[in-house]
Structures are given as C-alpha cells and as structure tokens.
Amino acid sequence: MNFQPQVFCGVCIGSASASLLLTILQLLPKKGQSLRKMPKASSSSTILLLISVCDILGSSGVIFRSTVWLGFPSFVANISVANGTDVWPSVFCVGSAMWIQLLYSAGFWWLFCYAVDSYLVVRRSAGLSTIVLYHMMAWGLAVLLCAEGIGLLYYPSLSSCERGLEHAIPHYITTYAPLLLVLVVNPVLFRRTVTAVASLLKGRQGIYTENERRLGTEIQMRFFKIMLVFIVCWSSNVINESLLFYLEMQPDINETPLKNIRSAALITWIIMGILNPLQGFLFTLAFYGWTGCKVELKWQKREIPWESVSSSTVGDNDYPSPVNYQSNVHDSKKISSTDSQQTDEAISMLSEGNTSGDDRVTRSSPIYQGW
C-alpha cells in the first residue's frame, strides 16, 4: 500500500511527546491554586487518575517504539526476516505492541469503570471498597484480552505474524472489544446518571431551582466532553480497520478502482498516529479543565482539590459551619441532613475537578438554603 513508516513514526513521536508533557503538566500541583480538603477520597477521582496514568505509559510506549523504528532501521528490517537467527527484533515488535495495547486497553476498561461508578454512586450502591473490583476487572480483562489477541495472531510461531483472516479477526476482536464497549455502553450509563442526578436534585427539597438545573447541566457537559474526546481520538481506528478488512476481502488489492480506498486507509492511519496519543492530554482537559502552567516545584503534601459539599464552608461569607449547625438541630432533622449529605457527596464526586461550579454546588445545598 506504499506505506511510509518514517512519516508515521515521526508523527507518532511528535503527538505522543506533546501529549506526554502536557498531561504531566496538567497533573502537577500549581502555584496559587486554592486547595480545599475533601474528607475522603472517592473512587471516581482515583479512576480518573488511573486513566491518565495509562495514557502516560501508553504514550511512552509509542515514543519508544517509534524512536527505535527511526533510529535503528537495520534492526527493524530484521523483523520481517523469516527464520532469522536474531530473535531480538521479533521480541521488540511483539513486546512494544503488547505494551501499547495493554495500557490503552486498560485505559478503556477504566473509562468503562468510571461510567459504572458514576451511575452506582448516584444510586448509592458504590463506595471506596468497589475500587478493588474495578482494579480486578480493568487490569485482569486487559491482560487476558491482550495475551489472547497476541497469541491468536502469532500462533503457532512467535517469530512472525500469521497471515489470514482466521488470525487477524480474533486479534482485532480482542483489541477493539473494550473500545466498542465504551463507545456503545458509556453514553447509555452517562445518560442514566444525568437522569438520576436530576431526580436527586429535585428530591432534596421537592423543587428544581436554577442552581440545581445549572449543576445538572455541568455534570452532563462533563460526560459529553469525555465521550467527545474518546470519539475524536478513536473513531479513525474503527474507520481504518473497516477499510483494511474491505481491502483484505478483495482478490487484488492493487486494482485501480481500489486506489481511493487505499488512499483513505493510509490517511486514516496517519490520523491515528496523531489522535491516539493525544487522548491523554485531551482527557485531562475534559476531567479538570486547563489547570495552568505555574507549577509548584516545592514538594508538599498535596490535598485533593475537590471538597465534599457536606463538609464544605463558604470561606469569607457569613455562613456558619454546617457541622456546628447540625450539632444543634433536632434528631429528626439530623436524619434529614444525613440524607442530604449523602446526596451532596454523590453529586460532588461527579463534579470533581470542576472548580467553576464549586460555589454554585455549595449555595444550592439545602443546608445552606435553610439558613
């Protein structure tokens, strides 16, 4: 297909390097950033961090593989040598492919776990204990599918990829299963979560105020940004594989009528090299927004910058502490406040990282509205 690996690897290095540096910059603590304390870390914040870690490690694998392809052409040329005596080119080929596939597949599974956790948190059916189950599912399924896909592709010999659809189709099914799962299931879970949030906000006081409507919109926009980034970064892969399978089914791939299909496959391949590694940085924008460039170099214990509404204070405003207020009310009101706290905590977890909505979340709390 007249594929030029030098161009593709150069694009991959540029995109992955930019994404790696910007993702790390986004996650570093910043100077002058107001850090507020949350009494307990939520599973959703841990999942978002793990998604970023998977993207960082996956981008590192892309950079390493592309650097070897560009810097050591004679070494890479031995990958295609059948029955060669040097096994290291094949080890590099298989190892780098498994590393990249494993990390990005794990990222897909963690993104699916985030959608599940968001829905369960609103339904009050999840907690910190469920993070262990998420670890088992994300890493376990990623390792299982990656090993199965590589085994089916290279069986019976690890020295070279086996040709034929009977090897390629099972490999791509195991590779794209978590990707398609996120594309299909996550929007459904996010939509149900937004609906459940609206019900929670209405149930707190029996009314749906402008502040609560705005908060529901912000959570919905957060989910929309996450899915938009995912679709933008990975839809080119689905298109490319569809084109390749169509070409594979043709008796002669070099026929003139198939020229446009071949060109489209090459174009989408280059687009994949640009967009796939950028997922890490774009996800941090969807999760936290732009956090700025002023990095705090002095090490200090960093507190989680998102605060649970149930234990928050409004700072310089003349509102009393919710803790002091609750300690003076009747026992029956304490029960009502506890339910309200659980609702606020669930909603606060979904809006983590959205600093623009913190004040509105606090002021829309029934605890503060009752004063």
From TrEMBL:
- Signal as UniProt keyword: no
| Record GO biological process | melanosome organization; melanosome transport; phospholipase C-activating G protein-coupled receptor signaling pathway; regulation of calcium-mediated signaling
Q: Name one GO cellular component term.
A: Golgi apparatus
* Polar residues composition-biased segments: 337-356
Cellular localisation? Apical cell membrane; Lysosome membrane; Melanosome membrane
Q: Which InterPro entries match?
A: GPR143
What topology in the membrane does the UniProt record assign?
Multi-pass membrane protein
Q: Which keywords label this protein?
A: Cell membrane, G-protein coupled receptor, Glycoprotein, Lysosome, Membrane, Receptor, Transducer, Transmembrane, Transmembrane helix
TM spans (from-to):
6-25, 46-67, 87-112, 132-157, 169-190, 223-246, 266-290
**Chloroplast among keywords:** no
Q: What are the recorded GO MF terms, alphabetically?
A: dopamine binding; L-DOPA binding; L-DOPA receptor activity; L-tyrosine binding
Residue ranges of the region described as Disordered: 326-371
Question: What does the record give as the function of this protein?
Answer: Receptor for tyrosine, L-DOPA and dopamine. After binding to L-DOPA, stimulates Ca(2+) influx into the cytoplasm, increases secretion of the neurotrophic factor SERPINF1 and relocalizes beta arrestin at the plasma membrane; this ligand-dependent signaling occurs through a G(q)-mediated pathway in melanocytic cells. Its activity is mediated by G proteins which activate the phosphoinositide signaling pathway. Also plays a role as an intracellular G protein-coupled receptor involved in melanosome biogenesis, organization and transport.
Q: Family assignment?
A: Belongs to the G-protein coupled receptor OA family.
Summarize subunit and interaction data from the UniProt record for this chain.
Answer: Interacts with heterotrimeric G(i) proteins. Interacts with ARRB1 and ARRB2. Interacts with MLANA.
Protein name as catalogued: G-protein coupled receptor 143
Organism listed in the record? Meleagris gallopavo (Wild turkey)
Lineage runs: Eukaryota, Metazoa, Chordata, Craniata, Vertebrata
